[in-house]
Design brief:
By secondary structure, the protein is α+β, with helices and mostly antiparallel strands. The chain has one domain (2-128). The protein has helices at 72-78, 87-95, 98-128; strands at residues 2-13, 16-27, 32-48, 51-64.
């Protein structure tokens, strides 16, 4: 039994970042992993009194079975309208190994988090008017 952990924070702009943690256990090389625990937090600027404070606006953790249920539901939880293309595509990514899948996960989280951050910023600006 082997466990791999990845934890990264990705800066989207000066005051917006996304943090994610992926933990995979099982026989990673053989593609026979038991499960993955993924935690994603998006940090947005929220006005508090006279200054801005970075606060955790969205965070979720989900344990999923890799071979049966790839990360489609995680992206759906982040932004429902921007579902991933197909389970088959993600399953193929995982069969290539954890390192390759991790870079794909990072790029997708960045894309979806940026879209969510843009929406949140629009709401913040609308409240200021």
């Amino acid at each position: 039994m082997k466990t791999q952990k990845i934890e990264k924070t990705v800066k989207i702009s000066d005051d917006i970042s996304v943090r994610y943690k992926i933990e995979k256990s099982g026989q990673c090389e053989a593609g026979l992993s038991d499960d993955v625990l993924t935690t994603v937090s998006l940090y947005l600027p929220i006005q508090e009194g006279s200054g801005w404070k970075i606060m955790d606006k969205i965070s979720f953790a989900e344990r999923i079975e890799i071979m049966e249920e790839p990360l489609v539901e995680i992206w759906g939880n982040l932004i429902e309208q921007e579902r991933m293309q197909s389970k088959k595509f993600l399953t193929e990514k995982y069969s290539q190994g954890f390192a390759e899948a991790e870079s794909y996960i990072l790029s997708e989280i960045c894309k979806l988090s940026k879209a969510l951050a843009d929406r949140a910023n629009a709401l913040i600006k609308a409240d200021d008017i």
